[in-house]
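Summary for the steering committee. The consortium agreed at its last meeting that each partner would contribute one worked example illustrating the joint modelling workflow. Our contribution is presented below. We chose a case with several input lines so that the handling of multiple components could be demonstrated. No manual editing was applied between input and output; the record is shown as generated.
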Amino acid sequence: MSTYFRIKPSEFIDETVRVSFKFNGKNYHGFKGDTLASALLANNVHLVGRSFKYHRPRGIMTAGSEEPNAIVQISDGTNRTEPNVRATEIEIYEGLEASSQNCWPSVNHDIGGINNAISAFLPAGFYYKTFMWPASFWEKYEYVIRHSAGLGKSPTERDPDVYDHRYIHCDVLVVGAGISGILAARNAAKNNLKTLLVDEKNELGGSTIYQNREFNKIENQNSSDWLKKEIKELRNIKNLEIKTRTSVAAFHGYNYLLARENLTDHLENKDKQGKIRQRLLKIRAKKVILATGALERPLIFNNNDRPGIMLSSAVKKYADFYGVVSGKKNVFFTNNDSAYESAFCLHNKGINVEAIIDIRESSNSKIVKAVEEAGIKIHWSHTIVDTRGYKRLSEISAMMLSNDGLSVTGSKINISCDCLGVAGGWTPAVHLFTQSGGKLKFDENDNVFLPNIYPSEQMSVGSCNGDFKLKEIISNLSTNLKQFLKVDKTDFDNVLIESEEENSKRNIWLLPSDKPIGKTKPFVDYQNDATAKDIKLALREGFRSIEHVKRYTTTGMGTDQGKLGNMHALGIIADTAGVKMSELGTTTFRPPYTPLTFGTIVGRNVGEYFDVFRRTPMNDWHIENKAEFENVGQWKRAWYYPANGETMHEAVQRESKAARESAGILDASTLGKIDIQGTDASEFLNRVYTNAWSKLGIGKCRYGLMLNEDGMVYDDGVTTRLGENHYLMTTTTGGAANVLGKLEDYLQTEWPELDVYLTSVTDHFATASICGPNSKKILNKLIPDLDLSEESFPHMSFKNAQIGNIKCRIMRISFTGEHSYEINVQSNYGKAIWEKCMEAGKEFSITPYGTETMHLLRAEKGFIIVGQDTDGTMTPIDLQMDWIVSKKKYDFIGKRSLYRSDTMKEERKQLVGLLTDDPNIVLEEGAQIVSDLNQSPVNMLGHVTSSYYSPNLKKSIALAVVRGGKNMMGKKLFIPMEDKTINVTIENPVFFDTENKRLNA
Amino acid sequence: MFLINCPYCGERDHQEFKAGGEAHIERPKQPTELSDDEWAEYLFMRKNIKGIQFERWNHAHGCRKWFNMVRDTSNDQIKLIYKMGEKPPAE
Amino acid sequence: MKNKYSIFSLMKNALSHHENWQRAWKDPAPKKEYDAVIVGGGGHGLATAYYLAKKHNMKNIAVVEKGWIGGGNTGRNTTIIRSNYLWDASAGLYDHALKIWEGLSQELNYNVMFSQRGVMNLAHNLQDVRDLKRRTHANRLNGIDAVYLSTEEVKKFCPIINTSPDIRYPVLGGTLQRRAGTARHDAVAWGYARGADEMGVDIIQNCEVKGISRNGDSVDGIETTKGFIKTKKIGVVAAGHSSVIANMAGLKLPLESKPLQALVSEPVKPIIDTVVMSNAVHAYVSQSDKGELVIGAGTDDYVSYSQKGSHQIVEGTLNAILELYPIFSRMRMLRQWGGIVDICPDASPILSKTSVKGLYFNCGWGTGGFKATPGSGDLFAHTIANDEPHKLNTAFNLNRFISGDLVDEHGAAAVAH
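What follows is the complete predicted structure of the assembly.
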């Protein structure tokens, strides 16, 4: 490292700790506290990347999160590679490896640089005008465009880091820990308000902590010395939480803010292990104080983008804070006094300042005088018309500005230099304010947009509110804070401030050159290579709105979101179109303020935590017995139990036969269960189901269909009357939550007069369903004293019983057509009961079956599954379930819709059975059905909803919905597949035991 | 992200609530007496107001109670919250 | 053509430093009277005007736009174009649009960058599989190029998807429509505007509609912030604001306007070469030509015109994205925004006459209107010019909400409504 580029840094840089890192494969070192940018500059590396479109060499422009150019790929050989990282933000750590992006083969020799040579043919929007012939070639053009676009490379491996979320509720959130934020936070906390202070940097104090303006004093001290003492005090204040390396990304309505707390990016890889990388803070604040500061503006002039051209404030920060010299021969270019502070600071540190180019005619402020007295040459009323140096600035040319600022005159001054500090004034960082819905006003005097109308309990203070001078910052803060916090005084009301008074300004959005604009490259958006002439072209072509210009030229759409150039774009549009800035308005600042890692937004909701698993109490048994599972809603349900290497088909065939021939057992715990109580419970059921409920006896069960108000089938299930005013409703597994929600809705909002209470008891009960001809014997073994006779315990009835010490509700209901019992027990006994059933059923070879076999068995009986055989377009009439629709009831949910002209049509799709002519062909669920193969286009009559090979019938069976199917019994239809046509016949959907003899067998 | 003052539980985060659409659309007492047009009006037609809208919300992940809200849909400002069955304030 | 775009015109203009390009469209003041006025200068509205002028010889027409053209959902969507819809009526409508997309750049002499990179829809549970197979069979018989893919084929077509059987909702299969893809959204509005302008259509921006004037059962004009405009035909193509315009004419529509959000990542080199949509876990993603991952989030459940949605929706979407693409964990969200989508109860659009003569509505596209832009414009122009729907949009009438003859596309809509 050439020591020439290091001078004495601030206390924030630890010169005793050397940190080695690699950039583009080469070894360098810096000190603890350096950013990659400061460390590179200290090593005299300015060329960091290539621009997006023209692949022009670019260097480090800023010292903060607004950086457009110096963005790199972190590529240290681990899975932690990351594209588009700002060199000005990433703190170096031992072993850091970074490389330039968007260049090939290297940043020094980039083939893409040819785009700069042909840039005349690549104006804004050129791609809208070309690449159209021949039409078929667009894919090829696009391939090239895509591969030359993009910046860094996406990771291709899983992220080794973990992320986290934290909810914070506070009275006051202060964003930005510069002098305003610190004073505001301290006073809030001292007034017993729970306060959170956040800042994106790793140290508190903002710019005040290092940059001592020459003629600013607080209590007769350097402002940084004064502030350091104030910061020390902060640590002891209760109610105040401080978070550094924490950037507020978004400010949503109702004072809901998202902030990213960066915890490990500055650590060595070995220290990153096992730690949370970033935490998303979800902050709900009663009041928000924005103290987000201001960003320095560049100036827009010809070739203003070369490595070595930096913001004046950045040059100063690198020198003051990091102790880094950005150039041996420095020139400043300015329209205000800021550059003089930078120049004077360099001069005092013994760094050469060649000259200052100032577009103003004069300034008589103290700092300007001091610079003049130091012997630095000032070129008043001059502008830079060109710069030279391909990979590093080598020379600038300046000329005299005309009075109107539109042209240049006189002779050219050439000054050789390797660093140009540019100072174009300051832009208040109002991004978060506008995100929150705040409305801005334009200040003609300072040429800035300022907060005007606040949409929530919030206030902006300091330079983000347009206060740029220390005196006005402190005095306005005091006044506003008292009002905002409703307190009488602050602890800095009497602090003595000295700050320099107003200086002169001259704002010219686009500075002229001696060349016609067409031959110049005045960049407005550095990253996206949008120039002032692109903006003018857009206006010429009729794009008037700022949003149009932005989209057409891509100005402000880079990873920096135009933090530097957006104001100039607006200014150039206003000047060109002859309108006022205030009429033009701004583009929308969209969240996040700086890009936010996906992993941070997601936090812990990855992998197994993506969504909760709902498992039944018998789940462990299913796992032990090698069940395969299917996802049903959030539930994991046993799908089938392959034994001895069976395929799914083989397992299902075996399970299905066993259930019909001897005994099967199903875990039905996932069905939704709603406990319904109240004196109007029967009336309530009358209103929500299509059939009648009043006459259902206590201890009896009934199947019910529930419709949507549009008449379409919504859910189904068996409901049991447990007592006079007490029912237990079951719903489909997937529909449980929605059904409860819907019932609550009607109960609370339409029928509040009904005395009914609903409670979800899905998780309270586990259900084992045993079915088959031997189910009765098994139950008898389990509960020998229970009378299982037809008279005492008929189909569709229920009994309370006890198995051992375990209380249970037993329903004699069937979804398979077999004699069956559903045993409901308190959840924690679920597995025990299941095992008891297995034990008792052993002698009958009781066979556990999963959802697939359940589906097959019910299809043999023609029972529907809501959601599989229905799709939200089927009425009960369509399902040929007219029997369940009460004609007597005056009303129920959905009834009126059944009598609309379309729902009354005969030719609607109706549920039917289908048999294939070849009994071995199993139809594909979803396959379409037609009657005439020769039609074009083919007229589709319906589709196959359920289809299985039935081992009990020894043939393929299917359920389908077919237009007019009800009246097509026996009709031959076709199923055209990709490779063949399958012949089918319409049948009654009840294939097995059509007389329901087995239920009572 | 709204902060919603549930009339039964107090201020809670938006995430706990479900919106239920326009309020004060009463389910017809005698649906069978209605024409198809009138039924469609109840079933589907909505004011969908830009500005002050009366709507229903449910504290789904809380007390499960439904309540009414008056909200300006142009800027999402919540103006008023009142219980089901209470009369809407005059517009 | 007054200023034909081509590589040659680009080179020629380079010589004069691009100082001589003509305006893509004029900025006229409204005339006193038009034969038809289109309300809404988004893609659908501009396309309607374009086809009215081109195919129905109606040249004395205007498009009035409250803000700037293409500034609503046209410029806010995730630009997915496909036609693999379930029902015949929808398949007919969306495939009509897709066919126009295939030659649109050439027709408009404006490169809309229609990129037929294919759209995959993923299945994550057994019912998804049934539904996608059903849709694929229907598509095939309707002449739409959709195929069903096994999990292995999904992986082959898009290798970065996590197809491990161990994830929470494993990928069980999917469908692929190869003719589907993406386009450059702004270019669609600008291309149609330029084309319409050239045929004499007045495109009037910053002109907000304040009232619909009726003479008995017919419209006779429109009140705007730029004055009263006389006209006998008004075509409303105002997306999220359709109900607002309808209310001016004393009509109520079966619509709710809700926030829909989207986001993009920072740009990176090509990493995903197709469009992947997953309805069940709710994630859809593609990569723009610029290199940004373009990710669509879902709708909120409340009515809003604020163009803002709630963070939980964005978080839910990114959860799903990382479930399917764990490699994107370190990618960063660059921009996030919201639009206002007008949603019909059956998730299908309305392209219809109304009870008021001369007043037509094109709305209800919900979350999926962009893909239909050219077809919607063409069919709506037909409906306005002939005062009768085209056979391809007959099913999308307003009367269906009364008769019950809905076109229920909840399954095919990308976003669960």
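Chain A touches chain C through 109 residues (CB under 8 Å). Residues 470-485 of chain A form the longest helix (16 residues).
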